[in-house]
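In the design runs reported in the main text, the only information available to the sequence generator was the tokenized backbone. The following block is the verbatim input for one such run; it is reproduced so that readers can re-run the procedure and compare outputs position by position.
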């Protein structure tokens, strides 16, 4: 497979997984969390497909397309390890869905980061919430969901973490 084909498959998997997850959390109230604003592509898509939800964005430094910069009040700036604890204090366990798009290009670093922030993300989730992640999270292997039809295996990872008193 060419690198172009591979990139297209990855982006299609991401798009389809986000659309599937937004649909799957229809019955759960609460905001969406977007970890990794980057140039704002997936944030922009979430704005289109989750029009009735507040979207809180976590990013170290904003460098997005000007049309895709979230309002200050929905932005948690700084390293995830600092901004997620702030969000837990401010918001609590309210999110219906979280999207982790945190890959830095170095696989081992990205996996380590995902493992490190997974407990913090979980503390922001409402019961039944879904997580769409570009990184596999070994600690959540027991709450991993089957990849829905139409989404290539191994490109994106879906979880419904056990939260709150069920822990
Ligand atoms: C793959 S990009 C996100 C792409 C974006 N979702 C899009 O569609 O344009 C990953 C982003 O995660 C951010 N990031 C990586 N590690 C981080 C950390 N420890 N704390 C905060 N942001 C981080 C990077 O700054 C980068 O913008």
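Verbatim output:
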């Amino acid at each position: 497979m060419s690198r172009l084909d591979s990139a297209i498959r990855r982006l299609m998997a991401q798009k389809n997984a986000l659309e599937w997850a937004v649909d799957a959390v229809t019955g759960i109230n609460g905001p969406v969390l977007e970890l990794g604003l980057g140039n704002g592509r997936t944030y922009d898509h979430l704005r289109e497909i989750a029009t009735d939800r507040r979207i809180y964005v976590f990013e170290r430094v904003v460098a997005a397309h000007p049309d895709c910069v979230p309002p200050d009040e929905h932005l948690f700036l700084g390293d995830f390890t600092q901004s997620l604890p702030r969000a837990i204090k401010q918001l609590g366990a309210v999110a219906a869905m979280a999207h982790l798009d945190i890959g830095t290009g170095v696989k081992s670093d990205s996996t380590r980061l995902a493992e490190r922030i997974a407990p913090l993300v979980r503390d922001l989730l409402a019961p039944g919430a879904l997580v769409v992640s570009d990184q596999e999270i070994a600690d959540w292997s027991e709450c991993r969901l089957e990849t829905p039809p139409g989404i290539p295996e191994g490109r994106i990872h879906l979880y419904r973490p056990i939260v709150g008193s069920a822990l």
